[in-house]
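It is worth pausing here to work through a concrete case rather than discussing structure prediction in the abstract. The textbook approach is simple: state the sequence, then state the predicted structure, then interpret. We follow exactly that order.
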Amino acid sequence: MTQPSSLAPMSSPRSAARFSLTAVLLTLGSVAATTTAFAQTTAAAPVTQGETAITITVGDTVMTGRLNSTVMARHLADRLPMTVDFTDHGIGTDDFPTKVHEIEPPLPAEGTELGGQPGTGEIAHYVPNGNLGFYYGQLASYWPGVVSLGTFDGDPEVFARQTGLFPVTIEVAEE
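Step two, the predicted structure:
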């Protein structure tokens, strides 16, 4: 009885190598497709009514995000698109895991409840000095002048890895 060709024994090292290469490529393709599907379904939180979908570009990395429905966040959305330089927080300790840019003119604070403790993946504004911040870690304590403006998706370490001044583009996402 003859075996089907797909089950025939490997007759040469070349056949074995082709078989092994095919198996590796099929496995990698399957892993890549699964990883891509997972990233697409978990990376971006949905934008809810009243929020503004945004994109944030740092170097070659493009992340999605959303500005919340607060008056202050709507004022920021009205200024988009913008490309501005961010840098380390002036105090420079782990208590401030954020990259900041001083917005000029500062965002109006009337009608906004001040105070918060932003965490990883948040976008916030510190009213007393006009800093807009992207948080790549949890703020160590409550700050009376902080206002959360929204959140961003993706790897917060993108911000942590930046040194010195670096440009960030923030724009309203295309729908």
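Step three, interpretation. The CA atoms of residues 84 and 167 lie 5 Å apart. Strands lie at 52-58, 61-67, 82-88, 98-102, 122-126, 131-135, 146-152, 166-172.
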